[in-house]
Every structure is written in structure tokens, then in C-alpha cells.
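Researcher: We're teaching a course module on how sequence relates to structure. For the next exercise, students receive a sequence and then see the predicted structure as C-alpha cells, so they can try to spot secondary structure elements on their own. Here is the exercise chain.
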Amino acid sequence: MSFVLTAGQAADSPQFIPVLKKVRIRLPVGRPRSRPGAVAADKAYSSRANRAHLRKHRIKAVIPEKNDQAANRKKKGSRGGRPVTFDAGLYRDRNTVERLINRLKDWRGIATRFDETPESYLAGLELRASMIWVGDLL
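Model: And here is the predicted structure for the students to work with:
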């Protein structure tokens, strides 16, 4: 799990690559991997830059195509390229992340962002995440 704090008005999609660079996947043995096998995200992350980054690093993108992107691709005909691949089974597992975000927001301070400094907000996020993690281990 990793967090990247931004200004409140910042969009989510530009933060996709910085968050992905901070993610480390722990397996039962060996050092943590920095490249996941697949990334599931919602339509907000369906930009050309995000898909190119995933393709460059050989990471499977499980991101549905936006309706306007599909329409523009179809409008171009054979020059528009192929539709993006999409694994609906892997996409269903994305709700795990959504449920975790809801559990993080159970703390009022995280949901309402009352903290004065980014450092204290990030500390609250990390504390709440560790509490969830330890609670799930018990």
C-alpha cells in the first residue's frame, strides 16, 4: 500500500504513475517486487499515458475504456486501433481497494481532512492503515 498526498483540487489520474512507483509487493519469500502483474483501476485512469506506462513495464492493465475514447477510436475506423483488452474477472477484485478506502474513512479526521499539515494527515492515514492491517491479522 502506498499513499501520495496532493492538493485537494488535484485530479487522480496524474497521480497514477507516482503511486505505482511507490508500490512494493511482498511475497512469502524474497525481496519485495516493484512491478505488479496487473493493475486494476476505474475509467478515470484510462489515459493514453497511463496505458503506455503500464505497457512499457509489461504490467497488465485492467482498466475499462471510457465511452468517449471508444467512440473516437471507432470514428477513426481501421486507423483507430484495436479495442483495449479487459479482464472482467480481475476488475471485480478492484472493489477490495474501494472497501479499504471506505474503512480508512471510518476515521472522521481522514474523511473530513481536518489536519493542518500534510505530514499529520499522512501520519493518520498510515496509522489507520496499520490498524486495519493488524486487525485483519488477528
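Model: If you want an answer key for the exercise: The mean pLDDT is 84. The radius of gyration is 18 Å.
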